Amino acid sequence: MEIISRLGRIHITIEVYEELNKCRYLIKPLINELQKRNIGMMESGDYSRLQKRHPKLGTGELSVIASSKDSIAFIEDRDAETATREEGVKVYNIPEVLLTGKQRGLIEKSEVERIITELKEKDGYILKREIEEELIR
Asked: What pTM value is reported for the model?
């Protein structure tokens, strides 16, 4: 969460906020970023049509797709990422954001390594070996 201010202001839907709110270790940093106005809350678009086309996706992912038609979506779920691209929305995932941040000098290599370790340990996040090697190179 602390790198958000370096990446620019982002918006999350109410559905995403509700999902993040359930995560014990994310709620305090999330509230902090909301208070600093690095994260803005937004109403989600109508995602009922998307729900029928992508029944495996959760409300958080669907709300992001429906609300990102004129912006860029940030999604970590691979099925949701594919669905987002199918809907014609530009989408980035965690490795892409980390690599861009590192290349632009917004995130140091040591911080990328720490984030990758936390993603693996706390979220069970799995990176392809070649992607992880590129990130920590």
From this structure: 0.73
